[in-house]
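Hi Y.,

Following your request, here is the sequence exactly as I used it, all 183 residues.
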Amino acid sequence: MYKTLKILLATAALGLAMPAVAQTKIGVVDYNRLLAEAPQAKSAAQTLETEFGPRQKQLEAQRKDLEAKVQKFERDQATMAEAERTKQQRELRDQQLNFERRAKEFQEDGQLRQNEELQRVQRLIIQEVQNYAKAQGYDLVVAQGVIYRSDSIDITPQVLQTLEKRGPAAAAPAAPAAKPQGR
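Below is the corresponding structure, written out as tokens. Let me know if you'd prefer a different format.
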């Protein structure tokens, strides 16, 4: 009797829960697509290119100059005096170390700024998904870890459309701090 009562209560509880589940509005977003296609993400990438392009060109010129000097040294070292050869080896080593230091600083600065921009764009996308979900009455929006979804619950295009309406200026940073070029 106790077992039957327990089964009836479990069935009743399940029956009461089913209508609530059936009425739950669920949406799915393709977060990677939003990150790739949002105009704010494209604007952030352009900002980084503008900010770091000149330094990258300087480093590339420095690398080419160093390679040319190394080739010239290798070509001419057999005819050089010992003192001259030692002096040029020391200069080339110093230039190589300087180049490596500048390249490492450039990479670190670039990664730091890229992470800053990425975090800002991610916050904007998450906020936009939340705003859209609230406005449309969604109870749950899932972004990753979905094995299957129907296109009918994919809200990615709608969120992307909202982000596009905001335009790239919505994620534009305040003027970036000027970095010293010769660092």
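The beta strands are 26-28, 140-142.

Thanks again,
Q.
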